[in-house]
Prior knowledge:
The complex is a heterodimer of chains A (256) and B (782). With 256 residues, chain A is α/β, with parallel strands linked by helices.
Amino acid sequence: MGGEQRAVVSARRLTKTFASAGGGRDVLNAVSLDIRAGDFTVIMGASGAGKSTLLYALSGMDRPTAGRVTFAGQDLSGLNESGLARFRRRHAGFVFQQIYLLDNLSLLDNAVVAGLLVTQNKAAIAARALALFERVRLDRDTILKLPSQVSGGEAQRAGIVRALINRPAVLFADEPTGALDQTSGTAVLDVLSAVHRSGQTVVMVTHDLKSARRGNRILFLRDGEVTGDLDLPPYRSRGGEERNARLRAFLDGQGW
Amino acid sequence: MRAAAVLACAALRRHPASAAVLGAFTALAAFLVTLGLIVATDYGSAFDQLFDAAHGPHLAVLEAGRDSAQDAADLLAADGVEEVEEEAVLATAANLDFAGQDVMAWVMVSDLDAARTMDVAALVEGAWPGDGEVALPYVLATSGGYALGAVFSVELPGTTLTATVSGFTAEPVFGGAAYQWYRLYVSSSAYADLAEAAPAAAATLISARVTDVADVDRIQLDFVRDHFAADAALVGDSTVTVAEVYPYATARLGRTFFASILAAILLVFAALVAAVSLVVVRFRVRTTIEESVQDIGAEKAVGFTSGQIALALLLQFGLVALAGALVGVGLAYLALPGVARLLEAQSALQWRPGFYPGVTAGVVLGLLAAVVATTGLAALRLRRLSALTALRSGLPSAGVTANRLPLVTTAGSRTLLLALKQSLQARGQLAMTGLIAALGTVAATALLSMYASFGLTPEKLSDALVGEVPDVTVSSAADAGAVAEELAARPDVDSVFLLDLNVRLLVDGALAYGEVVSDSSELRGGLLLSGAYPAGPGEVALGVYFADLFDVHAGDTVTLSAGGVSGEFVVSGEIQTVQNAGQVVLVTVAGLQSLVPEYTPSRVCAYLADPAESGALVTELAADPRVGEAVDFRALVAAEQGVYTGLIGAVAGVITLVTAGVVGLVLYLVLATAIRRRRQAHGIQKAVGFTTRQLIGQIALAYLPAVLVGIGLGAVVGGLATGPAMTVIFRGLGLGLATVDVTANVGLTVALAIGLGLCALATTLAVAARLRKVSAKELVVE
Ligand SMILES: Nc1ncnc2c1ncn2[C@@H]1O[C@H](COP(=O)(O)OP(=O)(O)OP(=O)(O)O)[C@@H](O)[C@H]1O
Ligand SMILES: [Mg+2]
């Protein structure tokens, strides 16, 4: 993996300041980085380091206080709220820790409704959704259920389908397994690995080592600054002890 | 109890706006119902007190040229009559200044010092008249524009009474605005002078009191039939009043009917607002339970019982209702003097409302009980809630359990389907909002229709109240025929006919007011109710009053008596007018002449090519020596109606605003709740890429159609039902009207519907603007 890869998202001197009682506090402090197309980038760091804040700024979910984000050739700082919304629906897929499906739509419809924001062709969207659901191993019966009627892991896999439905340039995930048990979490990670293998760019925030192993690039965030950047060989389900050791050493070096 | 109180107060503090809306509704309902009940139950007693204090006559007969001592004795002998009294008076039809208009009225002049036990005058204001002074009935102050010290002048046959107004009397019978009989008092010496100068006005007032008021109608009918049927003087020109009968019920109705209508309107609206309040209470209780389901779960888990939690809800809503009801009742008492003054202008009744413990307690306790009962019923679902499901936020019916309208398989656009799904979830609230919008619109449409019918097209009210309203009328006792011919020849005059009013006749023995017309095909007003106008001398059209009384209708025959001669006439149709309480009969000039050959009509009526020219024509005619009086009749009637149409317009305006306010408030409540509850869902939608505008569109599409359908249905129902409903009400009032021509003004109704719709749209957009503040990122930040 090298620098010859195209940067799909470029952040330059990103700063995010939240007003607080004692004046402003920089949660992101002039962060510059490139997300390379095809990578599975993992962002790690202590709680409160600014991981989620960075993810929102990169994905166009929120706007930085200063600095700029160029995403798929588009300068996001030029977009207003609705411009960002229209940008997100086409180019950024987002998977939440709390899953957040619409409770009055079936899993299938949750994916379809996002697709219908981009195209009116219901049949095409439905077909694509069905194909994606097959890839995340959710059967026909399950996807016709409401979110309240399925398990967390099933719901999160539907969340991934929703995020992928419009073929986004980047799939963002903020601790996608945070609310899941071990088994469900692994199933979700397997799906992420699989879509990555098929060429999807993924950016994932996580706390835990097992999840971090899925990435081929690890960014470490501390106090709003990127303090570490590690490239790894692609993840494989078996073996890779040496790879794991490098990751562990890297994290130890970051004081994780 | 203490624990429940703490929970209740906490809940009130959390949603002050909802509590305020609910309190406002309760206050409005309490306000309207208190005013309505007090007016309905007590206003009539103001008349009764006045009547009793004056020892008023249940039956008053004014007659001239008869053996009144004999008539009085006969009346006393009648079954059920208790007391009878005779008094010499001067009585005449005369013109006087009424609120700046020269109007024809019936005037009775009495000697202040004559001995009398019935209709004993009492002063409302000022002093008893000395020489050169006169005391007038109070209605001439409230409606007639007279003040103490003003100069009052009226033409009697042969002389003019001109005097300074010294006082106003609380006259119970001869002093209402609707029945233009005015009883004046002058000093003994002034009376003696007038009586000498105006012998033609000499008349006798026979007053009678009965044991049972229910007998009055029968006694009156019998008396008139037995005494006046063969009376040669029954047809005469209007300067001689030969027979007038004033029953108690007529006087009472005339003085209180306006108050009854007002009370009825207030009570109908009170009922509507109260219904809305209860629906809102039910809605608030349910949402409170749903929104605080986790609190409730926590409370249950901590050991509160369902009973305690329900008690907290009862306290919460009971307190708001109690406060609202007390405020509303208080405001009603503040408004009572104003209402009394408003009614006094029309009825000349001095009503001094006091404190009504029964009504007050009834309203407050009734509203409180209704709210508490509604709360209790709505809170029953608490029992279905276990601590655990509540903690997991799973109120059984709150969650969605079925995927209705799947997006993939249902035809329709994304926005439409999402909105429809939201509507389905909120169908109960939508039904409530739509129903409230519909009820309010019905009420506003009804009043606007009345206003449009009576206010914008005054002819319609004139049709109902006066019957025939020509542009110009000319009284010319001497040469009416010639005047009519000359008028007809003028190019600015469209049509001319002769129409005398108030010609005394008997119909099957009952005293009636004849309207005598030269050519009924010229009539353009709204007299005719059914059948046809009398086409020839052998036909009459009968007032509804008689048609109902004798059960005679088109095709039947009746006996008309006038000038001591009787004849059979075929009833061609039925007519209606509130003039003379509908005791009218329409007959042709030739028809009346078949009984009284020397009869000649004296009142010329003209419709002009351009009604706006009537003023100029009247001025021109007034200079003609043959013309007794030329009247810009349509303008006069319009001025008299101004009070009523102005009032209807004001009420219609207020009700329209109230409707807009109520619809807006309810919609606000429903939308604000929905947005608060679905905040997370909207955040998710934004995260996925929905714009704020798309979300606002979705909310509007989900909630507005129900309101718009309600408004539309309300407008249609209100437009169609007002006429028939008014007809039923007026028929019930016994005013001589069988049907009232109220039709919806399409333009106004459409404008109302559009206005209300825009108001709903504005409310929706204003509340939905909160969606701007919902952001995608807060989903993750929390
Ligand atoms: N909207 C906000 N207003 C004020 N402060 C905020 C806001 N969002 C985040 N912060 C603060 O910014 C800092 C970084 O937050 P962020 O959510 O990015 O951390 P994180 O690295 O994702 O932490 P975690 O691992 O706990 O999710 C935290 O101290 C947080 O309190
Ligand atoms: Mg985070």
